[in-house]
Design brief:
Blueprint (H helix, E strand, L loop, with lengths): L12 E4 L2 E4 L4 E3 L6 E2 L15 H11 L5 H15 L6 E6 L5 H12 L4 E7 L2 H7 L7 E4 L12 E7 L5 H7 E12 L5 H7 L10 H5 L3 E15 L2 H9 L9 H9 L3 E14 L1
Parallel strand pairs: 4-7, 5-6, 5-8, 6-7, 8-9
Antiparallel strand pairs: 1-2, 2-3, 9-11, 10-11
Helix pairs in contact: 1-8, 2-3
Length: 278
């Protein structure tokens, strides 16, 4: 597994038992859960950035119900196919890894495909990374900013960015030339039934990440994943709501209507793309 880079001076970090230290004397202690916190205090925009503990707990509970397993399988198959035939071992980063559901499943899928890859998961939320540590003991987990990835330049073979903030330059910096980026973002119909319960005017999304990436990445392939699934009790509906930003925007009438639902049929609509670092 590649050495981490010091977030203060970018020098390589040597790993010692329970500690990272660079040649300039900057040191970082390992958390008892096993992750490394490389998010500098002066670079935080809030006291507790990223998803809070309640959102992380809700996301973990919802994902463990398996509703997004088919999506995860498609992501894993797409990346496994794209990486097949490359010289191993490979270095992978799950950027914005959240509580580690997709990361851990990807790690297992690559092993089953016979692809030797070391996986690093990174998220700005310490609550998410603490939960991710329970998903896999073999992956390396980091609390850090995706705008300042603590990895050496041109050190990664692939990055996955699933429903997370797009940062073209930092991603391109740490990818090798020809390295891969697997991107996932919501389609226009994604969870539209839930959104119709929350908003009076549901409009198609104008989000186009591929255009934003075109200067640094070439598109290798794109596909959509679409299927329907059903939540059969209100606890599951509330769990889904709690893991999304929609929960912060609920009007009282919408909250009451959702609280009364005992079943909700939903559409999963997600775009996947594989891009190559120019």
């Amino acid at each position: 597994m590649i050495q981490l880079a010091c977030p203060l001076c970018r020098e390589p970090l040597d790993e010692q038992p329970g500690q990272l230290r660079c040649g300039n004397g900057h040191s970082y202690d390992q958390a008892r859960q096993g992750y490394w916190n490389l998010l500098l205090v002066q670079r935080k925009r809030s006291l507790d950035p990223g998803d809070n503990a309640a959102m992380v707990q809700a996301r973990r509970a919802f994902l463990d119900q398996g509703h997004y397993a088919l999506l995860s399988d498609r992501i894993n198959a797409l990346l496994s196919q794209a990486l097949a035939g490359r010289n191993t071992p490979l270095e992978l980063l799950d950027l914005g890894c959240g509580e580690g559901y997709y990361s851990a499943r990807l790690e297992q899928a690559l092993q089953c495909a016979g692809i030797d890859a070391a996986l690093t998961g990174l998220d700005i939320s310490k609550h998410a990374v603490r939960a991710a540590c329970q998903r896999s003991r073999s992956a390396r987990w980091l609390v850090a900013s995706g705008a300042d990835i603590p990895l050496p330049a041109a050190s990664l073979d692939a990055i996955t960015l699933l429903f997370s903030r797009l940062m073209p330059e930092p991603m391109a910096q740490v990818l090798k030339p020809g390295g891969l980026l697997l991107l996932a973002w919501p389609g226009d119909e994604h969870l539209i039934e839930l959104r119709r319960h929350i908003y009076t005017d549901v409009r198609p999304s104008a989000y186009d990440p591929l255009t934003q990436l075109s200067d640094l990445f070439s598109l290798e392939g794109q596909q959509a994943v679409q299927y329907r699934f059903t939540l059969s009790d209100n606890d599951s509906i509330q769990t889904l709501l709690g893991m999304t930003p929609h929960s912060q925007r609920l009007a009282p009438a919408a909250r009451d209507a959702l609280a009364a639902l005992t079943q909700l049929e939903l559409t999963l609509d997600v775009n996947l793309a594989v891009l190559k670092r120019r």
